[in-house]
Amino acid sequence: xxxxxxxxxxxxxxxxxxxxxxxxxxxxxxxxxxxxxxxxxxxxxxxxxxxxxxxxxxxxxxxxxxxxxxxxxxxxxxxxxxxxxxxxxxxxxxxxxxxxxxxxxxxxxxxxxxxxxxxxxxxxxxxxxxxxxxxxxxxxxxxxxxxxxxxxxxxxxxxxxxxxxxxxxxxxxxxxxxxxxxxxxxxxx
Length: 189
Known about the structure:
Strand order of the largest sheet: 7-9-8-6-10
Domain Phage tail collar: 7-63
InterPro entries: Phage_tail_collar_dom, Phage_tail_collar_dom_sf
Pfam family, one: Collar
Distance between the termini: 24 Å
Number of helices: 1
Structural class: mainly beta
Oligomer: single chain
Low-confidence stretches: none
Protein name: Tail fiber protein
């Protein structure tokens, strides 16, 4: 591997860290054994600053440039952003309404003498007359000749969704990020 700058981070396809490099897994490092790297990154990624400092933790994270991009949220160096999943609530959705209107017209027969107890494809609601104690049907054959008075219908649109988290992470490929511990100390230009 070509000579690298201390603090340089590279992607590496192997399952081990190269000699003089360490995985970017957020581990604490002793300042006394890594003074050059500590002088470059300090406690940007963690540590107490007296005896330890932390390496960047890129496990499951995508690196982004820090600063103030036009039209973007400001990002500080070492700041962790985002989440793998999010729970959507009504406050996350654009305003929307559901409206419904139900118009009900029920055909009926008013002049039939032949009534039945059960509906069929050729019967309609009929006028009800109860002579004595006999059983009376409410459905009659024939053409409907009236419509019952209109009425309102309550329709419950219900609650949709199960409250499950929504994945927010795009497609990716797990790779190792390694940081150079031993190499050329970078000079400022």
